[in-house]
Amino acid sequence: MNVQSLIPGGGADANAPQTVLIVDDSRAQRLLLKTYLRKMGHRVLEASSGEVALAVCQFEQPDLIVSDWVMPGMDGLELCSAFRALRGDRYGYFILLTSKDEKHEVAAGLDAGADDFLTKPVNATELRARVRAGQRILAMEGALTATLQEMRQLHAVIDRDLVEAQKLQQSLVRERHRSFPGLDVSLLLRPAGRIGGDLVGLFEVNEHEIGVYALDVSGHGIASALMTAQLASQFSGSVPGRNIAITTDAQKQPVMRAPSETARRLNETVLNQMGTEQYLTLLLARVEPATGRVVLTQAGHPHPLVHRANGSFEIVGTGGLPVGLLPGASFTDVEIQLYPGDRLFFGSDGITECPSAGGDMLEEQGLVGILNRHRFARGESFLSRLLEDLSAHSGGTEFPDDLSGVLMDFGEP
């Protein structure tokens, strides 16, 4: 942005001739003012009353109005208020002619929208000074209007780019639901804005195990979204070397690393290779769909919830440090055994910290209540109801933080 465009005379001509409307019931006074203003080079319009002045403003948009205060019918104060109520595409500078010098009278004029005052009888030099002051204000308003228009155009371009970025980010989650023998995995990803810093996903490792993850990059917006794209590449594919979570066994077959080891490696990668001050929370699980065995590590992400078939709940995990915060950080694995009818859910803090209209967070107990209320809903059906309940809790459909989650339904209930 050019700073000069915000300075009077820098982006608009503060000395350019203006259209000035004179409003006075005295013909002699109008003639005197018209003579002065025309000598200054301005285009001059006349009105003998406030009512006529408003009629003129319907087809003309004067830059300045010089109006007597005391007039029959609509006085200058009423005219000023009515003029301000008119919807124009630019500002009009209003000068009141008055013999009043009481402070409360001046205050009334300012409250009505007057910009300046001239005492009668009018002096040509003082009139010139007042009009020049108005020209400077109008030049500033013109420069600001032009800058605002430029900013709107720039915002439109950025918004179009963000729409495309949103499509690209959503494409990182290619599948929102995947069925394996004995296990259904459903994914939720809803940014707070066009783009966000949350990411969820799954990948197949071999015929016995899959990897499932949820992460939340610190901050919001473009920087966080760019980092999620980098992190998505760390968990892409099922080939060792392309996916940080996959290695090989003695027979050179792909197997999943211990989630805690993957978190350790990712921590060093973020600190040493990504060159960012951002960090992330992570929940990474190695899952055996056939047996229901789950080994997971929790790195600062909210605690996973196990909803047993009998209706009971278990809050699992050790908390842990976020990834990319401290060099040499270590992480811990936790093992969970799922049985037919059980389900495992883990989501970002955008869910547990979702505020109500009064500012109360949902918290873990609120999430437990939603899980229990919809205990017979599975997969994407449950995630849709979760969003509905969060919307009802917050009192609207807009959320202050990104929402993401993973739901694993094991076996038949």
UniProtKB/TrEMBL annotation:
Transmembrane segments: none annotated. PROSITE patterns: RESPONSE_REGULATORY. It is an enzyme of class 3 (hydrolase). Keywords: Hydrolase, Phosphoprotein. The modification 4-aspartylphosphate is found at residue 68. Residues 19-135 form the Response regulatory domain. The keyword Lyase does not apply. Its EC number is 3.1.3.16. It comes from the Bacteria. This is PP2C family protein-serine/threonine phosphatase. It comes from Psychromarinibacter halotolerans.
